[in-house]
């Protein structure tokens, strides 16, 4: 049977060919590594010690983290968890997941403790040892911090002046608004007084101004004619 390109083809020729000997050797190496790890874990447990991944020489010294852990950005967020997610620490599930160690932690405190543990440092390729700083490193660090402090002071001075200017503008605006409101209130009261005087001049003193005798009318309706003494002479 010939193919479209003029070459003989079978029903399964399109499938990928695997080298059985190569994969058998990989499986044997993996099983040997797992067996050695189990033995090392058992020996550490019998000795009352914690097992750590052995170093292969490619590790680097431990350095300080530059990034800050911001957990507040996760407040109110939702994470989709696979249906087959585990309920323990092993594997990815709901919580803070560490890809290097394949572990999940339910709260931020456990997560921070894990990131500082030797288990995590070994998993990310660090020895857990910190390089001892020399006198030159300390001197350079002091100079860097001093320059940063001077730059912050300059920014503070500029920002302080700007804040004072903005505050002054806000105070002036508030005073102007209060002055306008006070002037409008005085003008309104003046017009009301002029209207009251005008009504009395036109219609005489017996005219009733709206709201002027409300208290007297209420006392009369309740039967109070005055607050004189009840002592008989």
Tags for this model:
two-stranded antiparallel sheet, 233 residues, nucleic acid binding, 51% helix, Matrin/U1-like-C_Znf_C2H2, 5 helices, 4 strands, two-stranded parallel sheet, mainly alpha
Describe the structure.
Residues 98-120 form the C2H2-type domain. This is C2H2-type domain-containing protein. One of its GO terms (cellular component) is U4/U6 x U5 tri-snRNP complex. The chain has 233 residues and is mostly helical. The protein is built from five helices and four strands. The protein has helices spanning 20-46, 108-115, 118-123, 135-203, 214-221, and strands at residues 60-62, 96-98, 103-105, 126-130. Strands 1-4 form a two-stranded parallel sheet. Strands 2-3 form a two-stranded antiparallel sheet.
Write the layout of secondary structure elements.
Elements (H helix, E strand, L loop, with lengths): L19 H27 L13 E3 L33 E3 L4 E3 L2 H8 L2 H6 L2 E5 L4 H69 L10 H8 L12
Keywords: Metal-binding, Nucleus, Zinc, Zinc-finger
Protein name: C2H2-type domain-containing protein
GO molecular function: nucleic acid binding; zinc ion binding
